[in-house]
Amino acid sequence: MSPRPGRRSELLELAVLGLLHEAPMHGYELRKRLSGVLGTFHAISYGSLYPCLKDLAARGWVVEDASSHGSRGRIVYKLTAEGKEHFQTLVAEAGPDTWEDERFGVRMAFFGRTEASVRLRILEGRRSRLEERLDALRSSLARTRERLDGYTLELQQHGMESVEREVRWLDELIETERATPSGTTDSGAPTGQPATTTSGAGNYPSAHGE
């Protein structure tokens, strides 16, 4: 039995499976798309991508598409039926780990392929997590305000305002989800919201309060 991958490897696995669920891709294109899903601060090297693809292939979730090669003879990777089933299992999860900063962004990138009830649980969980963080930040600032210099105080307030902005943004997303009878539009995105699989996870407001 292969060892359980670490959290960063799990995120990469989810992102790769999600992108290949859209269409077969060669390594160069996949690496380029991953930067949009994982964010600009998570540059993916080929030294990380190809071992991930090799592992997914060993599990039977990805195959090299021999009938379709990209330009310059690049190998094209394709999701198998088992890979699609595993991806659907992953996007059905809505536990506390899906509310965390990095995983939330990746999960939202594939909300177009996520059940409406699962999307709502993740959004509400994320909001709850940030509200807890916001309470802790406010308490900390109230205790230490008098001992902070001006620059540190500005930094703390900036972090708190960032969290407040994301909470407001989540409120809007949750309201939209609850107001949409079917939960999705034909494009797979919540009504009034862009399809997240093309925009990437790097576009959601981040909280810098920690």
Describe what you observe in this structure:
It is a single chain. This protein is mainly alpha-helical and 210 residues long. It folds into two domains: 7-91, Orthogonal Bundle (Arc Repressor Mutant, subunit A); 99-184. Helix content is 59%, strand content 4%. The protein contains eight helices and three strands. The chain has helices at residues 7-22, 27-38, 46-58, 81-91, 101-109, 116-144, 150-179, 196-199; strands spanning 25-26, 62-64, 76-79. The longest helix has 30 residues, at 150-179. The two termini are 36 Å apart. The relative contact order is 0.13.
Write the SSE topology.
Layout: H1 7-22, E1 25-26, H2 27-38, H3 46-58, E2 62-64, E3 76-79, H4 81-91, H5 101-109, H6 116-144, H7 150-179, H8 196-199
Antiparallel strand pairs: 1-3, 2-3
Helix pairs in contact: 1-2, 1-3, 1-4, 6-7
